[in-house]
């Protein structure tokens, strides 16, 4: 993009204040040494979504969440959710839930995978409103749940103002870039990146002159398929940063087309596609090494 | 008789003179808002090189004024109404001429929140045509953070939007003194505006130039580098930066800023080409620049984030 939307980044005072807040934050802000298993919002969500099914809180052997301990920019916090074992038809991660405790909408979204995904890993960038636990919960095909939790210090990612040139950003919304990263090898999980130009507005920034809130306007669904089989389906919201960026895997067995279909809250639809020609695998690969 | 009266008068006069001189000597001890006359009739105040804190009372940007024969133009008003009042008092200490223009070089709170102090002067508030929307969308957040960080020091601070908009160039006449205002491609922000005082050959660059304090990208890295190239061609006699020493060495100060920004662009582009993620870029790029810039730890990683988010969309 040619202009940058920065949320809490409003400049010397706001950004500096946000950082100064590291030393002197409000009394009720979450703390890194809080017990993550006791946070009320998480417990409510867990009950509502998983209805009493146990969640293994030490799930790092299944799914590993990485997020910066201190965000450089609260509106653009890079996170990585890394599957710790490859997808196989008998054992695979079918869904990952992302929960950011202190965000105005804590349930940031879910990502569905299949054995064709190769690896149920996802990298993206999110908005973080306040100091918070961030949780990735993986559901395996046998119905078990595992969580990986990190604490992130950031503030203002959701409620700080939308960027400049809103009209221009909305008009240019929808450019899609879909690219495999590197040469694909048949039968190996292949990394791909999906980029979509979109303001992904939260609807929580007030315009002082009109006293109105710019309406929420964001991408709500992403469906990626390879050779017409789904490899990643994302149900997301404005917790994802402006100009959403997703990195994920798929397994090409033969040449085919990687396709992405994106829908937003105004029911606009955007598509991207790229041909993939995997080179033949080397001999003696029966199981993919990761 | 006459002679003794004359002597008494001389004694009274001498006493009065001594008292007056003492009073004048005492005045500087009342901690005035310090302004430096950089050129005849062109004054500037150096803000603290810091983020806004109660200790510095939000006075963290360079602000100033220009005096013509008819009236005065203010260039940025500081971080609070309190600072705006101090600036106004400094103007009054120098001239009784009315303030006819209050120019805001861009939307950031450390440059605009003293505007309220000049409201009763009924000046034209001047800024880029893109300033009103930027101010409106950020106002809520700025004022909330100001209150949280400065408490009562923030009292009375508000945003006063421009009444005179500039898109391209415009000239203001202060009476025998012309100021040329100019807007720029999105750089530090999308509403940057500079002021050129023809009489002294001074180019007030505001936050298009950071000296010793780390440049902050809140607009466009690519645009800023393009603007720097254009600024270099202007060959002013003197420049005033938005942050850092008022007597900024020229062109060395521009060279230093360009080196930081160009280095960031080069390293981020290379990281993107190598397939590195944003977090990898944030964790590795530009760390060797740390000793060259104040507030590096606060703003550099954010600059890398901004650069990456901008440059990943380049063809």
From TrEMBL, chain A:
Residues 273-284 have a biased composition (Low complexity). Transmembrane segments: none annotated. Residues 1-29 form the signal peptide. Keywords: Signal. It holds the Pfam family SoxY. It comes from the Bacteria. Residues 56-158 form the Ig-like SoxY domain. Residues 270-290 are annotated as: Disordered. Residues 184-272 form the Sulphur oxidation protein SoxZ domain. This is Sulfur oxidation protein SoxZ. It comes from Caballeronia glathei.
Automatic annotation (TrEMBL), chain B:
Residues 60-243 form the Metallo-beta-lactamase domain. Residues 1-26 form the signal peptide. The keyword Signal applies. Keywords: Signal. SUPFAM superfamilies: Metallo-hydrolase/oxidoreductase. InterPro entries: Metallo-B-lactamas (IPR001279), NDM-1-like (IPR050855), RibonucZ/Hydroxyglut_hydro (IPR036866), SoxH-rel_PQQ_2 (IPR030829). GO terms for biological process: antibiotic catabolic process. Belongs to the metallo-beta-lactamase superfamily. Class-B beta-lactamase family. This is Beta-lactamase.
């Amino acid at each position: 993009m040619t202009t940058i939307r920065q949320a809490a980044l409003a400049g010397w005072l706001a950004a500096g204040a946000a950082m100064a807040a590291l030393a002197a934050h409000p009394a009720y802000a979450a703390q890194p040494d809080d017990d993550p298993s006791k946070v009320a919002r998480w417990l409510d969500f867990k009950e509502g979504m998983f209805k009493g099914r146990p969640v293994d809180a030490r799930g790092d052997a299944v799914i590993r969440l990485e997020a910066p301990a201190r965000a450089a920019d609260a509106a653009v916090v890079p996170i990585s959710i890394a599957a710790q074992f490859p997808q196989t038809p008998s054992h695979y991660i079918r869904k990952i839930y992302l929960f950011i405790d202190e965000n105005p909408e804590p349930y940031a979204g879910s990502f569905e995978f299949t054995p064709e995904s190769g690896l149920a890993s996802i990298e993206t960038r999110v908005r973080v409103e306040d100091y918070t636990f961030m949780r990735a919960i993986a559901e395996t095909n046998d119905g078990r749940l595992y969580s990986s939790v990190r604490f992130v210090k950031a503030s203002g990612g959701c409620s700080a103002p939308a960027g400049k040139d809103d009209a221009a950003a909305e008009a240019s919304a929808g450019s899609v870039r879909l690219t495999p990263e590197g040469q694909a090898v048949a039968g190996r999980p292949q990394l791909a990146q999906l980029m979509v130009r979109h303001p992904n507005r939260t609807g929580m920034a007030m315009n002082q002159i009109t006293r109105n809130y710019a309406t929420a306007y964001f991408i709500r669904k992403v469906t990626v398929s390879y050779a017409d089989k789904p490899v990643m389906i994302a149900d997301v919201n404005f917790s994802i940063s402006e100009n959403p960026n997703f990195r994920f895997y798929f397994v090409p067995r033969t040449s085919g087309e990687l396709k992405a279909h994106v829908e937003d809250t105004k029911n606009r639809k955007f598509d991207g596609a790229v041909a993939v020609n995997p080179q033949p695998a080397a001999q003696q690969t029966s199981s993919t090494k990761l | 008789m006459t002679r003794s009266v004359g002597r008494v008068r001389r004694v009274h006069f001498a006493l009065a003179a001594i008292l007056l001189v003492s009073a004048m000597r005492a005045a500087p001890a009342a901690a005035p808002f310090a302004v430096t006359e950089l050129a005849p009739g062109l004054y500037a105040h150096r803000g603290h090189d810091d983020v806004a804190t109660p200790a510095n009372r939000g006075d963290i940007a360079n602000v100033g004024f220009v005096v013509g024969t008819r009236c005065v133009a203010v260039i940025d008003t500081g971080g609070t109404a309190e600072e705006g009042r101090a600036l106004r008092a400094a103007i009054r200490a120098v001239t009784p001429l009315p303030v006819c223009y209050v120019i805001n070089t861009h939307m950031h709170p450390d440059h605009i929140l003293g505007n309220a102090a000049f409201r009763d002067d009924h000046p034209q508030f001047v800024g880029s045509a893109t300033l009103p929307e930027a101010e409106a969308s950020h106002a809520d957040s700025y004022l909330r953070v100001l209150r949280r960080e400065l408490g009562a020091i923030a009292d009375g601070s508000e945003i006063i939007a421009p009444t005179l908009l500039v898109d391209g160039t415009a000239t203001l006449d202060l009476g025998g003194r012309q100021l040329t205002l100019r807007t720029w491609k999105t750089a530090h922000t999308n509403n940057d505006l500079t002021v050129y005082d023809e009489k002294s050959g001074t180019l007030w660059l505001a936050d298009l130039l950071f000296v010793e304090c780390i440049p902050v990208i809140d607009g466009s890295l690519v645009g800023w580098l393009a603007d720097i190239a254009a600024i270099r061609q202007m060959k002013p006699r003197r420049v005033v930066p938005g942050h850092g020493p008022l007597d900024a060495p020229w062109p060395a100060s521009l060279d230093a800023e360009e080196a930081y920004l160009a280095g960031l662009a080069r390293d981020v582009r290379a990281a993107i080409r190598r397939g590195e993620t944003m977090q990898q870029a944030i964790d590795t790029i530009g760390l060797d620049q740390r000793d060259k810039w104040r507030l590096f730890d606060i703003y550099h990683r954010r600059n890398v984030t901004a650069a990456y988010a901008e440059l990943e969309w380049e063809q």
